[in-house]
Write a structure and sequence with these properties.
By secondary structure, the chain is an alpha/beta fold. The chain has one domain: Protocatechuate 4,5-dioxygenase, Chain B (3-Layer(aba) Sandwich). Helix content is 35%, strand content 22%. The protein has an eight-stranded mixed β-sheet, sandwiched between helices. It is globular. This is Protocatechuate 3,4-dioxygenase.
Length: 281
């Protein structure tokens, strides 16, 4: 049967993608950011996941104010990079795994999660930047991807507890799929940052590192109890993206083993966080 072998958390700062695309990764400003992913690239080249369930948020590329799904799962065969106003990123199309995606969608809906099913959409930096950080710049992505989009842009976003429970349900769905697949779950977005208003540029290193500790060591109770207000107060308006990490964390079970950790300030106007975790049975 299919099995979830690891979880990855990472920021998806759009300027990181631009730095890679414009060959600026060795510049002094950017080098410390990318150095934190060297270990991860070596690790994932050894792990060779068949499928990545990639939890991210769309940035008005596939969805807009007309349609705002709380949770949407991509069940298509292929997804093109989105044009976010300056042309699509020069990265490969994302190949989906429709059979597993449809199985997960059915399992989640019967498990009483109201999923939006997407058969066609373009994917923006929220998905492609994590792929580039982990896989570099190949001619073809080495893993198939199931996009799972979460609304963290427009109020009300889902609670951290609901995201954790969705992760648990995803784990049950994957484990019931009969094909032998090595599956990873990635939670993307975050960490502390605010892009507008009087608090634009907010960074909270202390809170970010506490959150990384909880993701690595906690059984989930403290993570699930963090309220929307705390995310917004302590990490800025865009820090709410960290609830998406809890979907990954919930899918791994209560106990995990941290394999790698990276935290860096500043990249563009955000903090960058990254974790690699494996479940402990």
């Amino acid at each position: 049967m299919a099995r979830i072998t690891a979880g990855v958390a990472t920021s998806h700062v759009p300027a990181i993608g631009a730095a890679m695309d414009l060959v600026k990764t060795a510049e002094p400003y950017w080098q410390p950011v990318f150095a934190g992913y060297d270990w991860s690239r070596r690790w994932i080249a050894q792990e060779k996941p068949d499928v990545v369930i990639l939890v991210y948020n769309d940035h008005a590329s596939a969805f807009d104010m007309k349609i705002i799904p709380t949770f949407a799962i991509g069940c298509g065969e292929r997804y093109k990079p989105a044009d976010e106003g300056w042309g699509p990123r020069p990265v490969p199309d994302v190949e989906g795994h429709a059979d597993l995606a449809w199985h997960i969608a059915q399992s989640l809906i019967l498990d009483e999660f109201d999923m939006t099913i997407i058969n066609e959409m373009d994917v923006d930096h929220g998905l492609t930047v994590p792929m580039s950080l982990m896989f570099g710049q190949p001619e073809q992505w080495p893993s198939k991807v199931i996009p799972l989009a979460v609304n963290v842009v427009t109020y009300p976003p889902p609670s951290g507890n609901r995201c954790w429970l969705l992760g648990e349900a995803i784990a049950r769905a994957v484990e019931s799929f009969p094909e032998d697949l090595n599956v990873q779950v990635w939670g993307t977005g975050g960490m502390s940052h605010q892009l507008q208003g009087p608090r634009a540029g907010l960074i909270n290193k202390e809170w970010d590192n506490r959150f990384l500790n909880l993701m690595s060591d906690d059984d989930g109770e403290a993570l699930r109890a963090i309220s929307h207000i705390e995310y917004l107060r302590e990490t800025g308006s865009e820090g709410i993206e960290m609830v998406m990490w809890l979907i990954m964390r919930g899918a791994l079970g209560k106990k995990v083993r941290p394999l790698h950790r990276h935290y860096h300030v500043l990249a563009s106007n955000t903090a960058v966080g990254h974790l690699v975790l494996e479940p402990v049975s």
